[in-house]
Structure to design on (653 residues):
C-alpha cells in the first residue's frame, strides 16, 4: 500500500497580541492508504491545528501556514488554488469535528446537510442524493432514515448527531477522514459506540483515518500507528503496540502512567504529569518538555533533540535520554 | 408550531387590554380637560355651569370606571367614538393619516432593508478592510444624523440644485401613485437612512457572529461553494436578530415621526398625536395609542411567525 498523505515540515502559526503562537512547529508524518493513524497530546499541543492545516481551514488572518508541504496522493495541497482545495474538501478528505452539538446548522434539515455535498461533488440529482442519504444514515446506524432526513439537528441526541457528522464526512467516499476528537463531547458509552462505528466503517470502506485525541485508551484500541505531539512538535512515533510496550520519550511515559489500565494491578493512584505545557509564544531553546521532565540533563536545556530512529526505523523519539527511559522506566523523582 | 402561534395570538388581547387601562388612566392624570381648553379663550366669560354642562355632554362627570366601561364597550365593536375637539368620528380623523404614516413606514423599511442587508453582509465578509470601514462610517453617520435634518437638506438640495420642489399636498396612492411617490419618497429616504444604519450594524455583527460558528466551518469542510455557504448556511441564521430590530423600528415609525412629518408638510399620525394631547382630546388619544400599540403587537406577532418559519427550534417547541 502506498502513502496517501504525507505532511512534511508543516509550520502553522497564529499571530496574537501576545506574540506569534507556534501551534505546529515543523512536523512530519504520514498516513498510508487504509491505515488509522492517531495524533495524541494534551490540549493546545497543535493536534487540531494540524488537521485544520491539512484542510486549509485554519482561521485567517490570524492563523497562517508558514512552511511545509502537505502531499495528498502526490499533490501538494498547499499549492492548490482555493477552488482546487474546495474540490478536495468533502470529496477526497472528509472531516469529523469535536462538537456535534454545534457543528451542524440548526436551521437546515439533516437531509439538506447530508445531500448538499453529494449534489456538489458528485453532481447527483436531488432524488439520487436523497436515496444515497438514506443509505448513509443506515450505514452509520440511524434507523428510520427517511423520516430522520426531514428532521432538524435539535431533534437528534448527541450520539446521533455525531453519527450524522460521520455520515456527512463519508458521503462522497473520501479516501481519508480526519476525526478531530470525535468522541470528546459524548457520554462514555456512546464514545465506544462511535469509535467502533468509525473503525468498522474505515475497514469496510477502506478509508484511511487520522484520529486526533488526548485519550490513549482510544489510541490503543483503534490506531495502527501513533504520533505523540508536544508543544507543536512530534516527540515520538511508533506502532500502537510498540508505543504501549516500550515508550521511549518521558512525555509518552508520563501520558501512559496517567491513565488507568485494566491489564495491570490496580494502583492506588494515577501519576499525572506535573506542571503545565509551555507557552507556545516563548518556546525554550532546548527541549520543550524540560521543565516537566524527570530525566532532564544539562544538554536538554541547551540543545533540542530531533526525532531519531530507535530499534527499527518504525519507532522514533525525540529525546537525548531514550536509553535511560527505556531501561529505568519512570524514576519517582519529585519535580522541581 | 400551530399551538405556539395560537398561544402568541391569544396573548395579543390581554396586552391590548393592559394598554387600554394604562392609557385611559394616564391621560386623565394630566391636568386640564378638553372642555377647559376649548373654552380657555373665554375664561371668565364662561360660567362654571356651562363647563359642567359640556362635561356632562362628554360623560366626563361620570366615575372613571364607568367612563372606561362605556369606552371599552365601543372599542370591542371597533367604535372609538367621536373626537372631543372637532366632533368628527375618530375613524374619519385617523383614516387618511394612518394610510400616510403606514405608507411612509413601509417605504422607509424597504429602503432600510435594501441598504442594510447587502451592506451589513459585505462589511462582515470584508471585515477590517476599507469596504468594512466605509460601511461603518456610512452607518455611524446615519445614526448621528437626525432624519428631520436630512429631510431639510433633501428639500434644499432639490430646490436649489434641481429647481424642483416635491409636491406638498398629499395625494393618496390609489388616486395618483406617481404624484404620491414623488412626495413620499423623500421622507422615506430621510427616515430610511437612519433606520438602515441601525439595521446595517445589526446585520454586520450578526453575520460576523454566525461566520465564526462551528457549522460554517463544517460547511467549508464539506467543500461547498463560498456563495452557497453564505446564502444557505449563514444568512438564514444571521437574519433572526436583524428582523427583530427592523420590526421594532417599523412599529415606531407609525406614530413617531413628529418632526419629520412637519418638515415635509405631511399630515401624519405623529402630528395628530401631538395635537390630540395638546387638546386633551381623550377619545382621540385613546384611539391613537390603541392603534399604535396595536401595530406594535401585530408586528411582533408577525415577527414570531417569521421566527418560527426561520428557526425550527422554535417551530417544534
Amino acid at each position: 500500500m502506498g502513502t496517501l498523505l504525507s505532511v512534511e515540515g508543516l509550520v502553522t502559526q497564529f499571530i496574537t497580541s501576545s506574540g506569534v503562537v507556534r501551534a505546529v512547529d515543523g512536523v512530519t508524518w504520514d498516513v498510508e492508504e487504509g491505515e488509522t493513524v492517531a495524533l495524541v497530546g494534551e490540549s493546545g499541543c497543535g493536534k487540531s491545528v494540524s488537521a485544520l492545516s491539512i484542510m486549509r481551514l485554519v482561521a485567517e488572518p490570524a492563523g497562517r501556514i508558514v512552511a511545509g508541504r502537505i502531499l495528498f496522493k502526490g499533490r501538494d495541497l498547499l499549492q492548490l488554488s482555493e477552488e482546487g482545495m474546495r474540490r478536495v474538501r468533502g470529496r477526497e478528505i472528509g472531516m469529523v469535528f469535536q462538537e456535534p452539538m454545534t457543528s451542524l446548522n440548526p436551521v437546515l434539515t439533516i437531509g439538506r446537510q447530508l445531500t448538499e455535498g453529494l449534489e456538489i461533488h458528485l453532481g447527483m440529482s436531488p432524488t439520487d442524493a436523497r436515496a444515497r442519504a438514506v443509505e448513509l444514515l443506515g450505514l452509520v446506524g440511524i434507523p428510520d432514515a427517511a423520516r430522520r432526513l426531514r428532521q432538524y439537528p435539535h431533534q437528534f441526541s448527541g450520539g446521533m448527531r455525531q453519527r450524522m457528522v460521520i455520515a456527512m464526512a463519508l458521503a462522497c467516499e473520501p479516501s481519508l477522514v480526519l476525526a478531530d476528537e470525535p468522541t470528546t463531547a459524548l457520554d462514555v458509552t456512546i464514545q465506544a459506540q462511535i469509535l467502533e462505528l468509525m473503525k468498522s466503517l474505515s475497514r469496510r470502506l477502506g478509508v484511511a483515518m487520522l484520529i486526533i485525541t488526548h485519550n490513549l485508551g482510544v489510541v490503543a484500541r483503534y490506531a495502527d500507528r501513533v504520533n505523540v505531539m508536544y508543544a507543536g512538535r512530534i516527540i515520538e512515533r511508533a506502532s500502537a503496540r510498540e508505543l504501549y510496550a516500550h515508550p521511549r520519550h518521558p512525555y509518552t511515559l508520563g501520558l501512559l502512567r496517567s491513565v488507568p489500565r485494566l491489564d495491570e494491578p490496580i494502583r492506588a493512584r494515577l501519576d499525572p504529569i506535573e506542571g503545565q505545557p509551555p507557552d507556545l509564544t516563548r518556546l525554550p531553546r532546548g527541549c520543550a518538555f524540560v521543565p516537566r521532565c524527570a530525566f532532564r540533563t544539562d544538554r536538554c536545556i541547551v540543545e533540542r533533540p530531533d526525532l531519531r530512529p530507535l530499534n527499527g526505523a518504525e519507532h522514533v523519539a525525540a529525546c537525548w535520554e531514550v536509553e535511560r527511559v527505556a531501561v529505568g522506566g519512570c524514576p519517582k523523582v519529585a519535580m522541581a | 408550531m400551530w399551538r405556539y402561534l395560537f398561544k402568541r395570538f391569544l396573548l395579543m388581547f390581554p396586552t391590548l387590554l393592559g394598554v387600554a387601562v394604562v392609557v385611559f388612566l394616564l391621560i386623565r392624570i394630566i391636568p386640564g380637560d378638553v372642555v377647559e381648553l376649548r373654552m380657555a379663550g373665554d375664561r371668565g366669560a364662561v360660567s362654571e355651569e356651562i363647563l359642567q354642562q359640556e362635561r356632562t355632554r362628554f360623560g366626563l362627570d361620570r366615575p372613571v370606571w364607568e367612563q372606561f366601561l362605556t369606552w371599552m364597550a365601543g372599542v370591542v365593536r371597533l367604535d372609538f367614538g367621536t373626537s372631543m375637539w372637532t366632533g368628527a368620528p375618530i375613524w374619519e380623523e385617523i383614516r387618511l393619516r394612518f394610510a400616510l404614516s403606514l405608507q411612509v413606514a413601509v417605504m422607509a423599511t424597504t429602503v432600510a432593508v435594501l441598504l442594510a442587508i447587502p451592506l451589513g453582509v459585505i462589511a462582515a465578509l470584508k471585515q477590517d478592510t476599507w469596504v468594512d470601514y466605509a460601511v461603518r462610517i456610512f452607518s455611524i453617520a446615519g445614526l448621528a444624523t437626525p432624519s428631520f435634518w436630512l429631510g431639510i437638506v433633501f428639500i434644499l438640495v432639490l430646490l436649489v440644485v434641481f429647481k424642483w420642489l416635491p409636491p406638498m399636498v398629499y395625494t393618496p396612492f390609489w388616486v395618483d401613485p406617481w404624484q404620491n411617490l414623488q412626495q413620499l419618497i423623500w421622507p422615506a429616504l430621510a427616515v430610511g437612512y437612519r433606520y438602515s444604519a441601525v439595521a446595517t450594524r445589526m446585520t454586520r455583527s450578526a453575520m460576523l457572529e454566525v461566520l465564526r460558528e462551528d457549522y460554517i466551518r463544517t460547511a467549508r469542510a464539506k467543500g461547498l461553494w463560498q456563495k452557497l455557504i453564505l446564502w444557505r448556511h449563514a444568512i438564514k441564521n444571521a437574519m433572526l436578530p436583524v428582523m427583530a430590530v427592523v420590526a421594532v423600528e417599523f412599529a415606531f415609525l407609525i406614530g413617531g415621526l413628529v418632526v419629520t412629518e412637519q418638515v415635509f408638510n405631511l399630515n401624519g399620525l405623529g402630528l395628530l398625536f401631538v395635537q390630540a394631547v395638546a387638546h386633551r382630546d381623550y377619545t382621540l388619544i385613546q384611539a391613537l395609542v390603541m392603534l399604535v400599540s396595536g401595530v406594535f403587537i401585530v408586528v411582533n406577532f408577525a415577527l414570531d411567525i417569521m421566527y418560527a418559519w426561520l428557526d425550527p427550534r422554535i417551530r417544534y417547541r
